[in-house]
Amino acid sequence: MIDIFKDWYEHRHDYAKEWKKRTKGEVVGYFCTYAPEEIMYAAGILPVRILGSHEPQDVTEPHIFGMFCPFCRDCLAQGLKGRFDYLGGIMLSQSCLHLRQSYTSWQINIPVPFSYYLPMPHGVQSKRAYKYLRNELETFKKAVEKWLGKEIKDEDIDRAIEIYNKNRQLLHKLYALRKSSKVPLSGMEAMYVTITSQMVDKAEHNEMLEKYINTLTDRDVTNDRVRLIFVGSEDDDIEFIKMVESLPAIVVVDEHCTGSRYFWNEVKQDDDRLMAIAARYIDRPACPAKDWPELTRLDHIVNLVKDYNVQGAVLIQQKFCDPHEFDMPVIEKKLKEMGIPSYNIEFDVTVPIGQFKIRIEAFLEMLRADELF
Amino acid sequence: MSNTVYKTEPLKSWEKAKELRLQYYKNYAEAKDKGGIRWAGGAWTFDAIPAGLGNDVHSLTSEPYAASIAFNKELSLKCLEAVESKGWARDICAYIRNYWGSVIRNEYAFGGPFPVPDFIFQDHICCSHAKWYQVVRHLEGDIPMFCVDISVGPYHELNDSRLDYVTGQLMDGIEWMEKVTGRTYNDEKLFEAIYDECRTTSVWAEVCCLNKHVPAPLDEKTMYSLYVLATLNKHGKEIADYYEELRDEVKDRIARGIAAIPEEKCRLITDTQPPWGFLNVYRHLEKYGAVSVGSLYVFGLEGIWEEQEDGSWGPRRTPQQLGITFKNREEAVRFYADWNLSKPQWQHFYDPMLKVEMMKRIYKEWKLNGIILHYNRGCEGLSVGIAETRLGLIKAGIPVMTYEGNMGDEREFDETKTFARIDAFMESLSLK
Amino acid sequence: MISAGIDLGAKTTKVVILADNKIVSQCLELTGIDQAQTAEKALSNALEKANLSRDAVNFIVATGVGRNAVSFANKEISDVAADARGIIYLLPDARTVIDIGAEEGRAIKCFADGRVQDFAINEKCAAGAGTFVETMARALEVDVEEFGKMSLRSTNTIAMNAQCTVFAESEVVSLVHAKTAKEDISKAIHDAIASRIISMVRRVGVEEKIAVIGGVAKNPGFIDSLKRGLEINEILIPDEPEFTGALGAALTKA
């Protein structure tokens, strides 16, 4: 059953092209999970997240200075190589500086009919952010309407919110199964599911996800392994999680924007639909770039560690990601106080699996030291 | 290119600039002795806002303070290593690593232990800005912190809702400040501070414009020591007054034919902060008769500009010049937010092409021969989009040289190779 | 009870044989292309030295980067665990181990019983590892052994700006051209490497006593820089630091 999600992941472009042909709708690539997908979906657009392909590349060097993260370069590389040639539009909901460059370079070098920069507030802890974002969403909605030449009606938005919320509920349900001492799915399998929810039509994803959850009853893949949490930046590195889970470890939960941070909270329906959507994005578990003055991520991570009975943490960041680098030592300290050891890993476009395996093995040995004595 | 030899002479007001700078750091350190208030924030923060708390309120701005540390290589290395030892990565913003190092080592670069601020008042456009101080709080205990999000898009797309957002936050900031200091806020003092800040930042743009003159009366290296005053205390009356004095002196230099360097054969600008420990890069340029007449950085970080009637770039008219007198707090704060949002150095955050356009204009109006881009590993904010900036300038037919370095971590700068690059660039401009 | 520990490293393979937790034999071989064969050879040489037959060995534990190639091992453990275990056996007072191999530097904090408390490994960069020393010695045109000693004769402290191998090499060349004394350059280089390592050690927390193992342990210039940087007087170095990992493996419960 997981093969369906795996297939979507591996053939995401084929899926999008096929979807486009089937529905005659537009596909819009978004760069950061703060994109208000509901508005696009309501307009009949398929929003797809632009992610890298984890292959070494040499096309972005003239466009993005090497001090910026490998992820933003990998994303741009996909555009420069023509892999997203089916996109009718691109949009960025103001992200970190790194990823912002994938968008601006894309806009300059790979022009598409619709390109939109939404100045998503960074000050998400300010009460002023709600009204401001609500107004920005209205401007965005108008721009989409103008591009497509059609009005986005209230009932379209309601339907989009409903489908999106449903997906969030299902993903929550899937994650909750991993709290058990008998974990029915691997971290890698969970990764395939959450990542593909950012690639395929949510209605279709919901349908498959519901079926998939039903197949998990009585399944147990725990096999007496150490329960880990992955904390950090963008992570769709299948090779890495596969390697980790080939060792006596199982990833039971994550705090990534490709994972739990993406779907954690729902839109609370309200007559002012745009305000409801704005509130959802402002109140979601924050990206470190927007998480200030208070570091609210800490509580989120602490809760996950407790709820999922975590024994160790792997702290993952894209190389050169300043926002994550600010937080890491603070998170490490907090986890230590809770008695949860952690290990830091820096991701590049491709990771040295051999070297990292040695490190993760040493980390797991530290957690299971008794077996060596 | 001419072979004229121009007269040069040191700036008369140079000593005063030095004094103002040292006095600033002293004021901060000693504020508490006199019952005053100390606060910390970035060089871009809205520093006129805390001025409403009284005349005995002194700030420490992070970037210029960190640059002072970076200039002292030995101290800088100790600070950077102290930060790495605590687990923070080597590639984080180099300014704040120097600053944190000074906090961790409890060593104030101007003598004595590090003076802890009473509160933090910061703004946020670069992803690091608010995070800097979040870590400071982590290191120094829970210092009250307020931070204003100004990432509302480029100025030419500013609308009421966006301006409301920034204004609203600043209004909240004032209430918050009253609460954490227990002081009553004085709007009159705020108005004065805003008038002065507008004067400082507008007159600074005027000074920069004087460098359109051939030969340039100022070189960028000298301008660093002057513009820095605005990064410390741009709302300070003494800074605004000093800039007026400076402007008059520079005008006088032009009238008397005084140049920054004796043989001006080539005019350049740079981009982003220089590697502060290696300002000899500019001396190396001078060997070729090349003078950097400024940069978008030195012009637009603290200068506020607008298009003039003749279509050229010049100082933005101050409220005083426009005959505006503030009637209430909100009106003043709103004007103040708008003033700052027009800052040139905030525009490129949204699109590298906006930077290209500004640089093309400087290239033309300041009569340049080329542009040097510092690919600065120490600053994400000013290096953002720099590779596209390079491509855009090349497309516009402007000779461009790049070199890699770091404004505050000398371990990432290769002096020999940089000089070799400059030699090659000078050769390509037929200056060898 | 006889146990064997095999440390299959990138450059050399080490074997330690224990009889009731006492070292009875050790052996070092260059790691060939065929790692399995090297392991086999090193083990039989060590057994021969101790006059033991293969059957007498109760269990074998492998460590090192090539540990997967030791197909006859009963268990595998990481270098980190092996280092900690080995050092406590050799130097019971050690609490922090610094292991600097050719391409990797590690700092390990251990408990008194040899368990790992915390560890850090340098990132993908040669500037904190043995190869950096070799590259710099080459740039200075002195052999590696002399390079370490001459650092101690330095009379001036100069700072190295660059810490990336490539940058540093060009900086060394400029210093040579500027007629800077080789002794002073050597010291500056050792200080620079030590500072990288020290940052890593401080991350896991400095706890005395500190032991250094790995090839660089035998470089007096580096040890001197490390002492000054950590502001400590004493650094422990086992007599044969290269066997620490194999020893730790042999001590591990199969």
UniProtKB/TrEMBL annotation, chain A:
Metal-binding found in the keyword field: yes
Pfam families assigned to the protein according to its UniProt record, in alphabetical order: HGD-D
Listed InterPro entries: Benzoyl-CoA_Rdtase_bzd_nsu (IPR017603), FldB/FldC_alpha/beta (IPR010327)
Domain of life, per lineage: Bacteria
GO molecular function ontology, one term from the record: iron-sulfur cluster binding
Keyword field contains Nucleus: no
Alphabetic keyword roster: Iron, Iron-sulfur, Metal-binding
Family assignment from sequence similarity: Belongs to the FldB/FldC dehydratase alpha/beta subunit family.
Protein name: Benzoyl-CoA reductase, bzd-type, subunit N
Organism listed in the record: Candidatus Fischerbacteria bacterium RBG_13_37_8
TrEMBL record, chain B:
Highest taxon listed in the record's lineage: Bacteria
Single GO molecular function: metal ion binding
Family in the record: Belongs to the FldB/FldC dehydratase alpha/beta subunit family.
Gene3D superfamilies: 3.40.50.11890, 3.40.50.11900
Transmembrane segments: none
Keywords of the record: Iron, Iron-sulfur, Metal-binding
Matching Pfam families: HGD-D
Matches recorded under InterPro entries: Benzoyl-CoA_Rdtase_bzd_osu, FldB/FldC_alpha/beta
Native species: Candidatus Fischerbacteria bacterium RBG_13_37_8
The protein, known as: Benzoyl-CoA reductase, bzd-type, subunit O
TrEMBL record, chain C:
Cited InterPro entries: ATPase_BadF, ATPase_NBD, CoA_E_activase_dom, Dehydratase_Activator_Redct
Source superkingdom: Bacteria
CDD domains attached to this UniProt entry: ASKHA_NBD_benz_CoA_BzdP
Essential cofactor(s): [4Fe-4S] cluster
Pfam families in UniProt: BcrAD_BadFG (PF01869)
UniProt entry tagged with the keyword Metal-binding: yes
Domain ATPase BadF/BadG/BcrA/BcrD type intervals: 5-251
Keywords: Iron, Iron-sulfur, Metal-binding
GO MF assignments: iron-sulfur cluster binding; metal ion binding
NCBIfam families reported in the protein's UniProt record: CoA_E_activ
Protein name in the entry: CoA activase
